[in-house]
Amino acid sequence: MQIKQYQIDAFTDHVFGGNPAAVCLLDAWISEETMQAIAAENNLSETVYCVPVAGGYGIRWFTPRFEIGLAGHPTLAAAWVILNDINPDAREVRFTSKDGEVLTVVCDGEKLMMDFPSVPGTFSDDIDPVAKALGAKPEAYLVARDGMAVFPDEATVARLQPDMARIAVLDPMGIIATAPGDSCDFVSRFFAPKAGIPEDPVTGSAHCTLIPYWGERLGQSKLLARQISERGGLLHCEHRGDRVTLGGTAVPFMQGTITLP
To answer: Is 154 a catalytic residue?
Structure first.
């Protein structure tokens, strides 16, 4: 069996920036064991698999350790492949996840804008374990799929030296650290060691929780966000009630063929 695979840097306008994702194009679904093994072999934050279905593509996302239900940067990467290499005349692509969630990606000039569900967090008093894990006490802590620790300024988030072992035993899949931005509306970092991702370079799905928080706090629907990891990334965001829009640019790094027995 041969599988075509691309590696795309998402949420960036240059290679070696943003977040790299592996995109595998399939004619039909292969076993979960094989998809997980490929993701572990790639050892990127996510490997995304796409299969043609009526009206678009089925989509599934795997970290190096397990399958997840929603991921942003690999969806952006998959859309880039489909809209640039597979169907360059199209201006949008529709993905359907394993649980039936429909995600539409639309071209907006050079940017690809994704329609995702809003996943607001709930305020929690369980701050102390998070403070010990991150090495600094947040002003507030919210929980959704991920925990979100809110700090007073960008410099505090940039200085964090998290204890990955402590983060890995917390209940949420990952921990977001966020604050108002110096040159944008807000910044973030994201840590998910239990998923095999100590620090994720740019995390689209985390913005499903970040956008409603900052949209309401700042009183504005359109937001510019930066993830201030070592590679860094820029996200154009919009808060739309029970949906959010997030997007940016992506660039190809390489493509090749996986050969399996």
So the answer is: no
Strand 186-192, strand 222-227: pairing: parallel
- 17 DSSP β-pair partners: none
Amino acid at 66: F
Q: How far is residue 140's CA from residue 90's CA, in Å, rounded to a whole number?
A: 43
Q: State whether residue 41 is helix, strand or coil.
A: helix
Greatest CA span in the chain, whole angstroms? 55
- Identity (one letter) of the amino acid at 112? L
Q: Are 212 and 221 in contact (CB under 8 A)?
A: no
Compute the average pLDDT of residues 121-133: 97
pTM of the model as a whole: 0.94
Residues 142-152 have pLDDT tens digits of 999 999 999 99
Q: Where would I find the H helices in 4-119?
A: 32-42, 73-81
How far is Cα 113 from Cα 247, in angstroms, rounded to an integer?
4
Which two tokens mark 126? 């369980």
**pLDDT at residue number 257:** 97
Catalytic residue among 46, 67, 154, 216: 46
Distance CA 154, CA 152 (A): 7
User: Would you say how long the chain is, in residues?
Assistant: 261
pLDDT given for residue 202 in this prediction: 97
